[in-house]
């Protein structure tokens, strides 16, 4: 039994699951921050209820996503020891910064935001959610910094069989990062927008009495979906130009052909859905267009599918290199029997499947229940009634 394909499939499964949680987390926290900003400035009670409702869904997804990230980190030391030995001095630096700085700051600010609901000055509380948002995107920056180094190992040289860092600033100017980071940010906004629109559309299909609440929510979601779609399409094509600089043959390889075609098709389909929603929003028909409601509920998975296709294009095109031009994937795998890797792959997959089901069940239950009554206190009881 060959351990290499099992190890690759294991890590692909792990990163794909984690990436889906991350996208929704980044997208939702951005929209929640916008909603709370509008409430803080304007004072409309409906916006506070929106902040609480969508914020509760965000926190559930965030909490379950942490577990997938922890498991993914373990695999570097358990399965890919060759990567740690060869490139750990460079590759490990942004990962360490992400964990020790960005992630811990994000978690701290989020805890203060959750338990500070209704207990602190509204402007201070607003500052906290924006700090949560900024540190979340800082985490994404350092993760993409590390991944982009694998795609294009700039600012380093080989010394005594290991990579040494010459210029930390070169990592931030890496062409593999310049276009991909905005692309990921746009994908997160699209994911959050389609999720908010889809849940709101479901409530309209169920003849909700919270018309104003979900009308406002759908408006925010549609705008986010449109802006994010434009950004995703633009930055996606911008990456094609960047690829010519460091992986000129990547897009011509058969391995990336199928996911590339699906990714482009899904991107334009999401853009078309967002345009339709915007037109109906401008014409003030978005709450009555039942065909749009059915469409948007069905479209909730589209950003997730497009993200997975995009991730496959990015990673498959790098093979057979783990660090492009420096370290082959086959040389990076740990000296572990294939049977053990297969066992861990099955165990991790079952764990992630359980987490995905738990996330879906919890979020679906909260989403179906809808917002709290108008006269509820202003706290954020994250798991109440779940």
Automatic annotation (TrEMBL):
This protein's UniProt keywords: Cell membrane, Electron transport, Heme, Iron, Membrane, Metal-binding, Transmembrane, Transmembrane helix, Transport
Kindly list the residue ranges recorded as spanning the membrane: 17-36, 57-78, 90-116, 128-150, 184-205, 217-238, 258-282, 294-313, 341-362
Localization terms from the record? Cell membrane
- Which residue spans adopt a coiled-coil conformation according to this UniProt entry? none
Which Gene Ontology CC terms are recorded? cytochrome complex; plasma membrane
Q: Does the keyword Transmembrane apply?
A: yes
In which broad location class does this protein mainly occur, judging by the first location in its UniProt entry? membrane
Please state which protein family the record places this protein in. Belongs to the cytochrome ubiquinol oxidase subunit 1 family.
Which PANTHER family does this UniProt record tie to the protein?
A: CYTOCHROME BD UBIQUINOL OXIDASE SUBUNIT 1, CYTOCHROME D UBIQUINOL OXIDASE
Protein name in the entry: Cytochrome ubiquinol oxidase subunit I
Source organism of the structure? Amycolatopsis balhimycina DSM 5908
């Amino acid at each position: 039994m060959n351990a290499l394909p099992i190890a690759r499939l294991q890590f692909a499964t792990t990163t794909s699951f984690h990436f889906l949680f991350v996208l929704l987390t980044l997208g939702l926290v951005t929209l929640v921050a916008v909603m709370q900003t509008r409430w803080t400035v304007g004072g409309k009670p409906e916006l506070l209820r929106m902040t609480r409702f969508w914020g509760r869904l965000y926190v559930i997804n965030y909490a379950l996503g942490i577990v997938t990230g922890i498991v993914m980190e373990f695999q570097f030391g358990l399965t890919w020891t060759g990567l740690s030995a060869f490139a750990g001095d460079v590759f490990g630096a942004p990962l360490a910064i992400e964990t020790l700085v960005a992630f811990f700051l994000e978690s701290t600010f989020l805890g203060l935001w959750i338990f500070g609901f209704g207990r602190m000055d509204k402007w201070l509380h607003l500052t906290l959610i924006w700090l949560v948002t900024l540190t979340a995107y800082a985490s994404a920056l350092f993760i993409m910094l590390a991944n982009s180094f694998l795609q294009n190992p700039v600012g380093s040289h080989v010394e005594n069989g290991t990579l040494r860092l010459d210029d930390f600033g070169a990592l931030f100017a890496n062409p593999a990062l310049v276009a991909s980071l905005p692309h990921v940010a746009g994908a997160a906004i699209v994911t959050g927008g389609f999720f908010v629109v889809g849940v709101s559309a479901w409530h309209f299909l169920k003849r909700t009495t919270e018309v104003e609440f979900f009308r406002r929510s759908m408006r925010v979601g549609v705008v986010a979906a449109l802006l994010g779609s434009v950004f995703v399409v633009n930055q996606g094509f911008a990456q094609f130009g960047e690829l010519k600089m460091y992986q000129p043959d990547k897009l011509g390889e058969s391995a990336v052909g199928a996911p590339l075609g699906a990714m482009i098709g899904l991107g334009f389909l999401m853009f078309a859905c967002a345009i339709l929603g915007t037109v109906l929003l401008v014409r003030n028909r978005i709450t009555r267009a039942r065909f749009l409601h059915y469409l948007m509920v069905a479209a909730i998975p589209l950003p997730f599918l497009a993200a997975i296709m995009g991730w496959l294009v990015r990673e498959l095109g790098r093979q057979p290199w783990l660090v492009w031009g420096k370290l082959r994937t086959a040389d990076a795998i740990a000296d572990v029997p294939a049977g053990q890797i297969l066992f861990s792959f099955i165990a991790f997959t079952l764990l992630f499947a359980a987490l995905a089901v738990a996330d879906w069940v919890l979020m679906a239950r909260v989403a179906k229940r809808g917002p709290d009554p108008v006269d509820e206190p202003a706290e954020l009881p994250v798991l109440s009634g779940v």
